[in-house]
Amino acid sequence: MFENPDLAPEEVAARMLVTPTALDDLTLADAMKVVSYMRPQVIPAGSVFIEEGEIRKTDYMMLVLEGDIAVENELPGLNESMVVNVIGPGHLIGEMGLLDGSPRSATCTATTDVVVAVLTRTALMRLLRDEPRVGARLLLTISTRMAQRLRDTTRKLRTFAQMNKAMHEELQVVMNNRTRLGDKRSS
Q1: Cα 91 from Cα 93, distance rounded (Å)
Q2: Is residue 40 within 8 Å of residue 115, measured between CB atoms?
Q3: What long-range pairs does 183-187 form, CB within 8 A, spacing at least 24?
Q4: What pLDDT sits at residue 59?
Q5: Separation between Cα atoms, residue 16 and residue 24, nearest integer Å
Q6: Sequence-distant (≥ 6) Cβ neighbours of residue 76 within 8 angstroms
Q7: pLDDT 10s digits, 107-157
Q8: pLDDT value at residue 1
Q9: With b meaning 16 or more CB within 10 Å and e meaning fewer, what string describes 96-110?
Q10: Considering the entire predicted model, what is its pTM?
């Protein structure tokens, strides 16, 4: 994070906030204001710091400043989880929780020591009160990012549905062939 010793930690965080993996629609000036409402937190390697389905204290998001995080989802009915992403500096975690406080949708584990900047909903409300234009741009940028992810997920679901349909049709052909073969053997 501190590759450029000429920059203050807040500016480094602000520059990370305006990267394509975070909220690149914000200006650097907006990001500096947002970062001033965030608080740093260090997460030791190996710590599970967000759990899928967690319902308490979910009203915050984090900007990863240093380190790597494994993002996992439970596999229904298998009592196992699968790593769906590994993220690092410049990524955001928990934007949905910041907005709605709903249960977490994934488990996050620090694979290395991690440094994050945390924005709570309380801090977001202060930002909206103190800097309404910046707060509005932040919310619009988060909403745009979430809409893009929803569109991507919808595209993936369509592809999955097409594959599932093709597999089902192929299975029907195989089953029909077996049935015909069995009918011929019994005659």
Answers
A1: 7
A2: yes
A3: none
A4: 93
A5: 9
A6: none
A7: 999 999 999 999 999 999 999 999 999 999 999 988 988 888 889 888 888
A8: 45
A9: bbbbeeeebebbbbb
A10: 0.77
Q: Which two tokens stand for residue 32?
A: 């500096």
Q: Residue 84: how many CB atoms within 10 A of its CB?
A: 11
Nearest to 88 by CA among 110, 107, 106: 110
Radius of gyration of the chain (CA): 23
pLDDT tens track for 161-181: 899 888 988 988 888 887 777
pLDDT in tens, 90-108: 899 999 899 998 899 899 9
b/e for 125-150, b at 16 or more Cβ within 10 A? eebbeebeebbebbeebbeebeeeee
Place of tokens 């599970």: 48
How many of the other CB atoms lie within 10 Å of CB of 114? Answer: 25
User: For 136, phi and psi rounded to 5 degrees?
Assistant: -65, -40
